Request: fold
Amino acid sequence: MEKKILTDADVKRKGVKLVIAHARKKIDREFEGQEQVFEWIESVEELLTKEEFNKSEYIEKRKEFNDVIERTIDAEMRIKLRDSWISMGKALDKKVKKDR
Reply:
């Protein structure tokens, strides 16, 4: 059985998937603006289904997420979502670990 060679895009995609899963778990109660957050999550999940990984599309989604966060009135939820926004930025910067 042949091992799949990971690319930087694979690592970034996996990181974004984890961020989306954690963001979904953070929404533990109803709040004003919840619908926009779920719409954004669904749009990113659609993007993740695409075969090719276009980093600029994910950067645009991250900018959209910032707008969604800013429209969230609940301060506690805004903080939780901001953490996810930061994590998404880190996920987009990930690269494959090189063996030395």
In short: The two ends are 24 Å apart (CA to CA).
